[in-house]
User: What shape does this take?
Amino acid sequence: MARLKSAQELSALDSDLVSAVLEAKRRGQSDAQIAKQMKLSLRQLEQIAIHAYGLNISNPDRARRIRAWAPQQFQLEGTTVWSFKHRGNWATHHGQYRGNWSPYIPRNLILRYTKPGDLVLDPFVGSGTTAIEAKLLGRRCIARDINPACVELTLKSLQFLPPLGLFNSACYFEPEVSVGDARDLQGIESDTVDLVCAHPPYAGIISYSAGIAGDLSQLSAEAFVAEMRSVASECYRVLKPGGKCAVLIGDARKEKHIVPIGFRVIEAFLSAGFLLRELVIKIQHNCKTTGFWYRRSIEHNFLLLAHEYLPIFEKPERNNQCLLNGDAVKLPCPIVEELGPLEELAEPLKTSSVWVFPNNAMKRHVAANVLRRYSSRLISHSEGSQGVAPAEYKAALWQRAGEVLGSPACDARFLVVEAQDFRSNGSVVPAAKLVLDALESHPRLWLKEIVVLAPQDLADATAADANLAIVHKYLIVYEVIG
Assistant: This one.
């Protein structure tokens, strides 16, 4: 059955079937269980929920009993890889709203970048995760959403009275929740917000309303990125100088190739005047890479998207020119490496976009996976090579790619580029973005995958200062065409 796009199409379904779906949701059955039992797709269940409730949720009337006010043994994240195997269900948090982010994310952001009484803004409040955390942690909060049903859901989730003194907060503040458009933050004065926590919907991955005007979840990737430029401009306006803005965003796939929405959104915020202070990788834990999906990944040579990006921007204290446009940032020249002979490894190939390996065997495992999936040649960065400015780096990378592809002995179907972010003058240089910018218009290269490499034991990595320890790298995989 095709995706339901309107109330008319929904009404064409058997009313008894729709009633049975909604009753199963009220009983607490998961969407996966309902889909299997009633032979419906998850997209169809999504549309039934939206037309019944006005938002994408399993059951908005389901009571949530508070069993704890905080996560057990909580510690601030110290590296650029954030991985929460359990999304968190303290206070009134729940996972019924499709695509809502883990409360561990706003908790980390609020505790790291604000103090009690500071003002937090969430322009895409959804089910209220950030507003709940702000109330628990003694921060003021403005929460908005373009969907009135989300505002109602958030207000319901905020109907609790936290114990005074929780997390050394002398009092709590009731969040201000209202309908609003993130592209036009009317009523919020300039230079007043301490922290923006934003988790926008994107590229039609998940639908959040039945066609509300301005709902960004209904847009194509290109249109979404264009609208996010207005969001970036408004976030910049309302933030205090020195204030932080965090945006959780992911990529999409089209024609078995990656659409790099994440880095395009990062560019939109940099263009608005922000500095990039951190670039966190958020690992997804709902990607099954065994059985059916493992076979599909190998047969069709694609990876399941298992990561999102959490760039943390800062509004500079004074007017600032983006570092990536100047010559202050120096990058190592790209070189071409020939990977060594393939070592047979017992474990199967990685089938998601996050490759986690033991710290002391990272290079060996990466080489084995790259060789078996893609290519024996890897464009990487030599630590001992001469530094170059961004413009020169892009030119050098274009030249190296041309040398590899132009070699008479080259019959490779893929080209793999390795990159790692680093800091310069207090800001993060997103090296993977520079690679994408450099090779975006290459006539023979089509972006296939963006792979994140992460060490298995993150406890081994600690930051030397207030910044997060950069522990991840990227493999940017291009398909060679022509």
